[in-house]
Amino acid sequence: MGERTRPWPAGTPNWVDLSVDDPVAATASYAELFGWTCVRRGTDEYWLSSVDGRDVGGIGAKRTRDAPSRWTTYLATDQVERTLDAVIAHGGRVVSEPREVQELGRLATAADPGGAVFGLWQAGEHIGTDRRTDPGSLVWSEALSRDFEAAKAFYTTVFGYEAEEIGGDGPRYAALYAGGRPVAGVAELHPDLPAGKLSPQWLPIFATDATDAAVGRVCAGGGDVVCDPFATDFGRMAILRDAESAPFAVIRLG
C-alpha cells in the first residue's frame, strides 16, 4: 500500500496520541510492545511513534497534571471551529480550544454527551496516520458509551456518519461509515462492567502479531488486563491498561 497524501474524509480517525505523566517511560514501554521507533519532536515533551518509517501516533506529557492518562483518538475535519459548534449544539463540550501545530495542522479536543473525549485534526502538511494492518499500526477506534443510542445519534449528526448496527445478543455495536467505508465504531459498555475498569472513551485498537504475548508484555511492564483475550470476527483481541492505567486494545488480525 502506498503512502497516503490526501486528507482523510471527515470523521475518519486520523491520529492517536497518549498523554501521560512520564512520557519517557511510556515511549520505552510501547516501543518494546509494538516495535515503534519513537523520536522526540524538537524540545517539546512529545514523541512521534512510527512503524517502518510511517507515523502511527504520538506520546507526550499531560498538559495538566490532574488529567487522567489516556489515549486520544483524533477525527478528521475540514474545519475545526465548525465541528466544535456542532459538538456544542448536540450536547457535547469543548475540552481544549483550537490551536495551530506549526504548519502541520489545527487541533482541538472535545467530549461527547457521555463524557468520551476525542480530538479533532484539521490537516495541514500532516494528514495523520496511514490506516494499515501491520503489527504496531492503528487499525480501528471506537467510542465506548453507557448510552448507546445517544452516542450513535451524536456522532452521526456531528460527523455525518452512516451507522450500521451489527452483532446479536449482548452489548450493542454500530459501525460508522465515512466516504462509503467503515472507519470507526460505537460500542455499548456492558452494564456489569465496573466503572473503574472502563469508562466512556474512545478506545484505540492496535495490530499485534501475537495477542497473548502482547498481554504478557503489558502486564510485565506494570499494566493490567481489562478484558482477557477473546475471539472476534476480525481476530483475537484483548483490552488492556498500560502502567499509567490508560486503556487501549490489541488485536491479531485474521
Question: What does it look like?
Answer:
- The chain is of the alpha+beta class and 254 residues long.
- The chain folds into 2 domains: 13-123, 2,3-Dihydroxybiphenyl 1,2-Dioxygenase, domain 1 (Roll); 138-253, Roll (2,3-Dihydroxybiphenyl 1,2-Dioxygenase, domain 1), CATH 3.10.180.10.
- 17% of the residues lie in helices and 44% in strands.
- The chain has 4 helices and 16 strands.
- It has helices spanning 23-34, 80-89, 148-159, 211-220, and strands spanning 13-20, 37-40, 46-51, 54-61, 70-76, 93-101, 105-111, 117-123, 138-145, 162-166, 173-178, 181-188, 201-207, 224-231, 235-241, 247-253.
- An 8-stranded mixed beta sheet has the order 2-3-4-1-5-8-7-6, covered by helices on one side. The chain has an 8-stranded mixed beta sheet with strand order 10-11-12-9-13-16-15-14, with helices on one face.
- Strand 10 and strand 11 form a beta hairpin.
